[in-house]
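Notes taken during the Thursday session

The instructor put the following on the board and asked us to keep it in front of us for the whole hour. The protein is Class I SAM-dependent methyltransferase. We were told not to look anything up and to reason only from what is written here. First, the residues (394 in total):
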Amino acid sequence: MQAHLPPVLHELRLPLRLRLWDGQELDLGPNPRVTLDVHDPTLLTQLGRPSLDALGSAYVEGRFDLQGPLSEVIRIGDALSRALGAENETAPGEREEHDKATDAAAIAYHYDLSNDFYALWLDPQMVYSCAYFPTGTETLEQAQLAKLRHLCLKLRLKPGERLLDVGCGWGGLARYAAREFGVEVYGITLSKEQLSLARQRVEAEGLSDRVQLELLDYRDLPADGRFDKVVSVGMFEHVGHANLGLYFRTLFNAVKPGGLVLNHGITACTTDGRPVGRGAGEFIGRYVFPHGELPHLATAIARMSEEGLEVVDVESLRLHYARTLRFWSDNLEAHLEQAATLVAEKSLRIWRLYLAGCAYGFENNWINLHQILAVRPRADGSHDLPWSRADLYG
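Then, after some discussion, the predicted structure tokens were revealed:
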């Protein structure tokens, strides 16, 4: 059977063992740290010209099983695709149309999987977005609380102000802002499962008089400038390139003149916003985030500016997200047995690869994450931002 294995695989000397369906074991390098239990004989031929999408799909569909650290699995998969896969042929392609029904279905697919499943590997507040590590030594729980505080400080929240939280998730930021900064929060989401648990937590913390959460599409937000501040965390990845102008126009119309808008989201590393190469983007689009699209920072800033928002501060948190995802991946790996009782086997395979793969992607600068702070200037061009950032980091 070894004759059917592409010879170049041995030349790579990867710490990988192939355990075949008939019991044979083939080591592709010294001291194997990862074992692929191959169930489908056709996989051997495919390994001669792999892409990250093909490798990931084969695992998700049960054509092989994995033994070994997921971080090492991802590293080996990347080495295989770099050495043997096709050149990066990913192109921007046509931009998808994002209507309300399509976006609602995509959100339900990803976020309505199981609240209990997410709780296994998120922090206690269930903040499903990049954490903030001021020193790099924080626990996940500490870093998520630091992120919530960082967002609130950037928004210069004051007691009695009205905050709009677009894509409020399980309500962690909404509750924190109301509890710690004394603001009134109106949050929206398209996930019914998230909304149900978020409302339960708001009530349990006695915040129902200050936090209102609704199932609402951002396109249905009022355009009357009723909010003092607007925050959007991990939301604009679902908007789509074609709707970025509409999205930022909606945020502009929702905030009062002089008010701040903070957009926290994953951004592409290529200026044309093409998917991550060698099939990684295709895998995520097929199995994890249907219809998701990542704009480049320059595109996001351009669209914000075109809609009247003045960008006043930008911060990259790429390595913060790599560390966050590593925490999430490790947490999931530590709870695999319990996770298997909450979601289907295929879903668990998807999430194992997704979390470990994204940690690797952020570490290697395949994708980035930016917090972009903007203001809706008053008619005379004024706003009330301080003259320095000392209040954020002092």
